[in-house]
Every structure is written in C-alpha cells, then in structure tokens.
Design brief:
- The structure is a single chain.
- The chain has a single domain, classed as Ribonuclease H-like superfamily/Ribonuclease H (Nucleotidyltransferase, domain 5, 2-Layer Sandwich).
- 41% of the residues lie in helices and 17% in strands.
- The longest helix is centred in the last third of the chain and has 27 residues.
- It has 7 helices and 6 strands, in the order E-H-E-E-E-H-E-H-E-H-H-H-H.
- By secondary structure, the protein is α/β, with parallel strands linked by helices.
- Strand 2 and strand 3 form a beta hairpin.
C-alpha cells in the first residue's frame, strides 16, 4: 500500500495512473452523516490480481480541493480510462459527478443479476467479497470511523486499502458470472 499525503506525490501518481486502461476506485468521506461531508481519501487499485493490497494507492485528499480537482480532470473525465466503483452514485458526488466518463458500477451489475441468483445475503461490497469471492476477515467496522481525524490509524488504512481489493475481485467474479450465465 502506498499512503500518499503530499500534493506533489499525489499529483505525480495521478498522472501515472491516468495512462492505465482500468482502475478500481473507492472513497472515504469525513462527516458523511452531516450536511457538510468532506472527501477524505481516494483509494486506487490498478492491479486486480493484488489480493493483499500491496499496490493500492491511498490518496489523502482531505482539505486538498486542488488535488481532488486534478484527479477529476485527469482520471474521472478521461473517457479512455475505465473506472470501476461499487455504488458509484455515492462516490461520484465527490468525484466530478456528470464530468465522470466510462464508469462501471458493480452494485448495478449485481442488481441486474439479482441477489437470489448470485446466492448472497445482500449486495453490499463486503458481503459480495465474503460470499461471492470467499474473502475471510472482512472488516466492516472501520467504515464508520472518523475519516476527518489525522493521523489515520493503521486499521483505517488497512480497511481503505482492502476496499479496492474487494472491489476488483467482486468485479471479476460478477463479469465471470455474467459470461458463464449469458
């Protein structure tokens, strides 16, 4: 995992990631249950076979609106770059909304298939990771932690990095399911 906090290193990473063909993305938001939520982290995985999260980039964009805008213009608005999210409508509120191009949402894919046909108890990312992709020890507690407080704990960083790992694996599983059941 690469936890980046400095604007210059985040910008350089964004520039490198913009040349990829596909990225698996997630966000963490501070004060999400208030009228004024703030984007805290953008997590990015470019290597879908990384099951440990060693290659995940965690971009700490809390109180760095210029970096968020750079991410939106370089990554989100890039129509040549496929972006995969789970429940993309939530993340897109913070990442450019209508500017976002070439978005795939695993929640939408899972809904089209249906929970019953997938054989899962629900369609949440963590559930799909556990029940569809056989991940064990999936942390669901840190999601509601204080993403506005710095420094972030190691548990928070581990939670954040694994979200994109789960996402990539769920995406691959859903694609495989669709291909074999079409």
């Amino acid at each position: 995992m690469f936890y980046l906090t400095q604007a210059s290193e985040i910008k350089a990473t964004i520039t490198r990631l913009a040349s990829r063909q596909i990225l698996w993305l997630d966000t963490e938001v501070a004060d999400y249950d208030t009228p004024f939520p703030k984007l805290s982290l953008i997590q990015v995985l470019a290597e879908p076979n990384d099951l440990a999260g060693d290659s995940v980039y965690i971009l700490d964009v809390f109180k760095q609106p210029d970096i968020v805008e750079y991410f939106i213009t370089q990554i989100m608005a890039n129509a040549n770059l496929k972006k995969v999210f789970h429940n993309s409508s939530f993340d897109l509120k913070y990442l450019g909304n209508i500017q976002a191009q070439n978005i795939t949402c695993t929640l939408k894919i899972a809904r089209k298939i249906s929970r019953d046909r997938l054989g899962t108890s629900n369609l949440k990312l963590k559930t799909l990771a556990r029940e569809l992709c056989n991940f064990t020890h999936v942390d669901v507690e840190q999601g509601r932690s204080d993403w506005g407080r710095r420094p972030l704990s190691q548990k928070q960083l581990d939670y954040a990095k694994m979200d994109t790992v789960y996402l990539a694996q769920v995406h691959l599983c859903l694609n495989s399911w669709v291909e074999s059941n079409s």
